[in-house]
Amino acid sequence: MTSRMIPLLEHNEQFARTYTPVPLGLPAAQVIVITCLDHRVDPAITLGLTLGDAPVLRNAGGRVTQPVIEEIAYLAFLGQRMSGGQLTDDSRFEVAVIHHTQCGTSFLADPGFRREASEATGVDEAALEASAVGDPHVTVRADVEHLLTSPLLPPNMGVSGHVYDIETGRVTTVIDTRYP
After folding, report:
1. Cβ density class 53-92: b for 16+ within 10 Å, e for less
2. The pTM of the whole model exceeds 0.85
3. In whole angstroms, how large is the CA radius of gyration of the chain?
4. pLDDT grade, residue 156 (50/70/90)?
5. What CA–CA distance (Å, rounded) separates 98 from 145?
6. Is the dihedral of CA 61, 63, 67, 73 positive or negative?
7. By CB neighbour count within 10 A (0-12 exposed, 13-18 middle, 19+ buried), where does 36 fall?
């Protein structure tokens, strides 16, 4: 059986022919995107991001978990170091939390499905329940609040919340940028 990666590696060859490396530095868009790993949600396409624009953190549901908060804290530290500690008001970063409609994690709201998923994956039922996105407008608000109350979030880093609609392709703002 041939690898399913072969066509993807062929696309990579085409990409590499015209590739220009992006130097290590601060992301051009000054945004960190947190979103779902769903294959229908690609922030490079939906937000028009290119290499070097923004770090993108993805997990099931695009939820703000402790590991995500720790990644943001590290990125903030790295940004401070790379800027020589000279981040000004104009160079503030924003974390954009983006949930989406029709999320596959919505099935986890059902106790029977969640129990089966826990048994099949070995992941604790409570952790699975916490990752469920039933109503993305509700969960994105909860995740923005969770991030804003974390002691690891730098005080000069803003957080906003958005919902991507799978049917229309539109991203709408649910919570404008707020600071801790």
Report:
1. bbbbbbbbbbbbbeebbebbbebbeebeeeeeeebeeeee
2. yes
3. 18
4. confident
5. 13
6. positive
7. buried
